[in-house]
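User: Just a sanity check before I run the rest of the batch. Below are the C-alpha cells for the first item. I only need the designed sequence back.
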C-alpha cells in the first residue's frame, strides 16, 4: 500500500521545488549583500579568496536558520496559489478530495522542514566558530578592558569575572564553576580575589581564594589557597574580551547550562531564556506558518504572482517584527520569557486554525 498517491506526489513536488529555491535563494542573496559590504575589510586582513569563500560556506547554516520559515511560507503561498489559479483544487474537490486532504503532503513536508531547522540551529554555533576563526574576528574585535561578565568555557566551566585588564593581563575577582555528575566527577567552585596570566606557560595563576569540591549534596571539601595554577584555564586575556559567546554561538544544551550557572550567581537571565526558547520556537514556526498560509493562499488567484509575493513578504515582515516585540517584552520581564518566545507562534497558530476551519473543503 502506497502512503503517497499520484496527487500527493504531484503536490509535494510542486511545493518542494519552490521550497528548495527559496531556501537556497534567500541565503545566497544575503551572502551577496554581506560580501559587497565587507569585501574590502576582509581583503585588508590579507585573506585569500579561498578563505573568504570558505567563510561564507560556513555561514550558510546561520543564514538559513531564520529564513526557513519564510521559505516555507513562500512555497505554501505559491504552490497552493498555483493550484487555485489552475482550478486543480476545484477538480480535486469535485473528485471527493477535501482541501484539508489536498494540503496534507504540504503539512507533512513542513514537519520535516521543522526537524531540519532544529538540526541547522544546532549546527550554527559550530560553523559560526569556524567562520570567525577564518575571518580572524577575535584578533580584530578585541578590547583592553571588560567588566562584570560571564564566559562559558569548554567542559562545562563558567567564569564569572568582575574586571579584566588585557594590557596588565590581570583579573580582579574571579569565580570558576563546573557542574559535576557525582563523586567520580564532582562539582567544584573556585573563588579568587585575582588572577594573573602567565604568558610563558599560557595559564592563569589564581591568587588568594578558596576551592570548594562538592561530590554530593551531603559533603563539601573546602581548601584555602594563596596561589593556584589552573591548567584548564587556558583562554588568553584577548580571548576573554574578543569572543564572549552570544546565545547564537551556543547549542541548546550549552545555552541551558550557561543559563543555569548564571541563575546560581543571581544574574538576570530573561534575555537568554527568550533566546533559548526561540531555538525551539523558530523551527516549529515552519509548521505554524504552513497551517496559516495554506488557506490564505487560496486567495492569491486575484492578483497572480505579484499578489502572492506581497502576501508572503507582508506576513514575513509582520512575523519578524512580532518576534522582536515579544523578545523585548520577555527580556523586560513583562511576561515569562518562554511565553514571550512562543507568542508569535500562538498568535499565528490560532489565526491559522480559524482560517483552516473556515476554508471551503
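Assistant: Here's the designed sequence for the first item:
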Amino acid at each position: 500500500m502506497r502512503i503517497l498517491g499520484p496527487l500527493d506526489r504531484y503536490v509535494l513536488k510542486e511545493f518542494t521545488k519552490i521550497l528548495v529555491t527559496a531556501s537556497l535563494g534567500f541565503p545566497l542573496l544575503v551572502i551577496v549583500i554581506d560580501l559587497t559590504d565587507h569585501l574590502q575589510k576582509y581583503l585588508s586582513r590579507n585573506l585569500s579568496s579561498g578563505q573568504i569563500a570558505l567563510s561564507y560556506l560556513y555561514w550558510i547554516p546561520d543564514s538559513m536558520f531564520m529564513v526557513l520559515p519564510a521559505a516555507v511560507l513562500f512555497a505554501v503561498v505559491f504552490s497552493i496559489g498555483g493550484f487555485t489559479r489552475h482550478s486543480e483544487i476545484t477538480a480535486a474537490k469535485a473528485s471527493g478530495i477535501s482541501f484539508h486532504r489536498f494540503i496534507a503532503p504540504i503539512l507533512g513536508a513542513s514537519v520535516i522542514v521543522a526537524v531540519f531547522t532544529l538540526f541547522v540551529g544546532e549546527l550554527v554555533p559550530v560553523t559560526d566558530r569556524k567562520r570567525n576563526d577564518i575571518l580572524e574576528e577575535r584578533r580584530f574585535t578585541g578590547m583592553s578592558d571588560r567588566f562584570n561578565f560571564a564566559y562559558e568555557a569548554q567542559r562545562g566551566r563558567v567564569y564569572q569575572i568582575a574586571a579584566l585588564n588585557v594590557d596588565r593581563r590581570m583579573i580582579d575577582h574571579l569565580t570558576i564553576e563546573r557542574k559535576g555528575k557525582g563523586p567520580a566527577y564532582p562539582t567544584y567552585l573556585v573563588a579568587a580575589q585575582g588572577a594573573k596570566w602567565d604568558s610563558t606557560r599560557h595559564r592563569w595563576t589564581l591568587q588568594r581564594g578558596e576551592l570548594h569540591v562538592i561530590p554530593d549534596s551531603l559533603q563539601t571539601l573546602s581548601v584555602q589557597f594563596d596561589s593556584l595554577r589552573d591548567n584548564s584555564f587556558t583562554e588568553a586575556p584577548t580571548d576573554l574580551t574578543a569572543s564572549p559567546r552570544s546565545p547564537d554561538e551556543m547549542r541548546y544544551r550549552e545555552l541551558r547550562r550557561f543559563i543555569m550557572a548564571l541563575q546560581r550567581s543571581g544574574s538576570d537571565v530573561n534575555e537568554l531564556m527568550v533566546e533559548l526558547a526561540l531555538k525551539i520556537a523558530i523551527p516549529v514556526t515552519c509548521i505554524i506558518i504552513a497551517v496559516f498560509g495554506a488557506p490564505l493562499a487560496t486567495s492569491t488567484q486575484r492578483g497572480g504572482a505579484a499578489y502572492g509575493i506581497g502576501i508572503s513578504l507582508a506576513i514575513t515582515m509582520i512575523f519578524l517584527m512580532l518576534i522582536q516585540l515579544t523578545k523585548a517584552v520577555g527580556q523586560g520581564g513583562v511576561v515569562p520569557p518562554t511565553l514571550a518566545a512562543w507568542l508569535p507562534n500562538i498568535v499565528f497558530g490560532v489565526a491559522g486554525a480559524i482560517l483552516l476551519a473556515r476554508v471551503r473543503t
